[in-house]
Amino acid sequence: MNQMHRHWGIGLRAWLFALLACPVCGQELNTELGEAVLMIPRAGFTEPSLEVTLYRPPGEGPFPVLLINHGKAPGNAHFQARYRPEVAAREFVSRGFAVVVPMRQGFSNSGGSNPGTSCDVHNNGLQQARSVRRTLDWLAQQPWADLSRNVMLGQSHGGLTTLAYGTAPHPGTRLLVNFAGGLRQEGCHGWERGLIEAIGNYGASARLPSLWFYGDNDSFFPPFVWQGAFERYTKAGGQAELVAFGSFGTDSHKLFGSRDGLPIWLPKVIAAMAAAGLPTEVLHAMPAPVDLPVPPASDFAALDALDKLPVAGEAVRNAYSAWLAAEGPKAFAILPGKRGWGSAWGGDRPIARALANCERRVNEPCKLYAVDDKVVWRID
């Protein structure tokens, strides 16, 4: 995530080039999870269209619904890639839930502009929650969705959105789940205190049970922020259970998107869902797909050193910059002699997909250059 701060400014031209040059990189639909990408049509002049990713179990439903709210990458929200939380989606689809992932107004291919651009983080969360309610209004018209049984979950900026949504939820929402919720606004004076107060104030109107996950080595929110927010939220009347799980890998902010994080959070979420009267039994066995092994890190170059890429040319630099800005899990593969490259991010098996995307270009075996937050390239 820190690399994204330094490389989001690749420009519209570079982003479009990378996307058009490799339309399938990281974007294949996961048929096993019933993945589909839909658009909620605009409503009048004030409500823009929204891009929605859907994961559905087999059958016609109606299915209980779990809605996942995405975080925010630095820079222009329209450049943010479609969010694909397949690690979590697999767990809930296997339990009979339809998993719905809306890109909020102004993000990715959703219409309009991101309404939360000021230092008023309290209002930011409330404005973000408008897109969530809009999605629920659309879901109410879908015969496969049972909104009388729904869970609201969010990560990072999506966690803030989830807590803000909890101040005026749909009557069928049973549980709020917050993973590292907040919004880091370093350009705003006293942003940490403002975030503590904003989340705390949501607690005065919240009446749903909520489950919070925060770690000690979070690169966005130090412990005093989320501890203070939790204390204010519960003192204001909000129902919340805090799971302070300590450190996780190199950055606890990545817990939700990592398969290694499942043993920490999944049992807690399942227990909270059961207490809320929601189904938790596994109905469809979906073993986790096995990716190729991750090579050890090398000392070839820093992850963000574009001038060290063994493949020359503007196309690969643009593609690598776009890859740096993408959410993990992710991998980047190259073949220097033929200026070949391929990338993948989000979803299952990113290493195998990146290699396949590269080899599809050059018809020869490629090698991994980088995986997640480390360079693995070695000169033979």
How would you describe what is shown here?
The protein is α/β, with parallel strands linked by helices and 380 residues long. It folds into two domains: 14-28 and 291-380, no CATH class; 34-275, Alpha/Beta hydrolase fold, catalytic domain (Rossmann fold, 3-Layer(aba) Sandwich), CATH 3.40.50.1820. The chain has ten helices and twelve strands. The chain has helices at residues 2-7, 11-21, 86-93, 121-139, 157-165, 191-202, 223-235, 262-275, 314-325, 350-362; strands at residues 36-40, 50-55, 63-69, 98-102, 145-155, 173-179, 209-214, 239-244, 330-335, 340-345, 367-371, 374-375. It has an eight-stranded mixed sheet, with helices on both faces. A four-stranded antiparallel sheet has the order 10-9-11-12. Residues 1-26 have low confidence and may be disordered.
SSE topology sketch:
Elements: H1 2-7, H2 11-21, E1 36-40, E2 50-55, E3 63-69, H3 86-93, E4 98-102, H4 121-139, E5 145-155, H5 157-165, E6 173-179, H6 191-202, E7 209-214, H7 223-235, E8 239-244, H8 262-275, H9 314-325, E9 330-335, E10 340-345, H10 350-362, E11 367-371, E12 374-375
Parallel strand pairs: 3-4, 3-5, 5-6, 6-7, 7-8
Antiparallel strand pairs: 1-2, 2-4, 9-10, 9-11, 11-12
